[in-house]
Amino acid sequence: MSYLRYSPEIESPAADEQKTIDGIVSGMKEQSRTVERRDGEAVRASHAKSTACVTGELRIADGLPEELAQGLFATARTLPVAVRFAQGPGEKLNDRVSVHRGMSIKVFGVGGEKMEGHTSDVQDFVLATGTTFPSGTAKGFLRDGTVIGKATGLPEEAKSAVASFARNLNRVLERAGTVSPMADFFGHPFYHPLAESYFSQAPMRFGDYVAKLAAVPVSPEQAALRDWRLDARADDNGFRHAAIAFFGEHDAVFEIRAQLWTDAKTQPIEDASVEWSSDETPFRTVATLVLPKQAAYGDERVRYFDKRMTFRPAHSLEAHRPLGSIMRARLQVYAALSDFRHSENGIEAADPSRIEDIPR
């Protein structure tokens, strides 16, 4: 199979992209202010409600072929990681509002050339359920984000009803052999958070190549959770309690897989709403993420993860530079909203460079 090479010319920003990004930042700050007025504190503008805050190891595979032995994955080694699982919205909602979910990974001791402005020796990967980002481009995200922002002040019962409608819509579509990424974004099934796969959704540089990444659960204990469904009527924080219970008894193991770029027409860099067919270009394993049995929600650690620590696409090696319209927006949006959150709460942001910096 022939893999396309990375070069700066594969990106093609819109002429008015900065104006669009400024609009996203402004709109999401206003959304955050709405939540702050209601809840008494500023929270993350996305993935606000954590499910598990854990540490572990990233074990990079030995003997990878040249096209996969790139960047962080160039040589076999084991690196410490911190991982935060969370619900998707920028507000802490009852689990009846089951929407998309996130998995953020911070890899320590990565070495190598960092992106401009990034000084800590870490690599962050910000992943989510769903193989694509429904809005596709920064302009699409500004459009969709405006709708989400206006809905932030609605009662939780209304948000639960929207999520329920979206889940039911996808059940109907599934019978016809398809699903709606947008419906999944607003109404994700009540799956166990450790039985899910998580995706970069948008492409990134992969050394000399380009790829999307996935984290796929592979342990037998996680496979046994495939039929698990939350009874949201019984527990407002059921996803968190389920994750805590799992980590109290078992290790969680995910394979990190890369899907390399092979076709500029069917796999556009600038539109993250287009799925790269895994039939044409399969995801291939480059590392194993091992999160051992542990207390997944200790008070001191959760305060550090939730209130101080940041996960950003901009915390990256140059070899894994985020690519495309959505990712270029995220480079600025995550930083601006993190600064806003920490300033509003009067808390200093933490940018740890060693796993020892994280409370045990």
UniProtKB/TrEMBL annotation:
CDD domains: y4iL_like. GO terms for molecular function: heme binding. This is Catalase family protein. It comes from Pararhizobium mangrovi. The lineage of its organism: Bacteria, Pseudomonadati, Pseudomonadota, Alphaproteobacteria, Hyphomicrobiales.
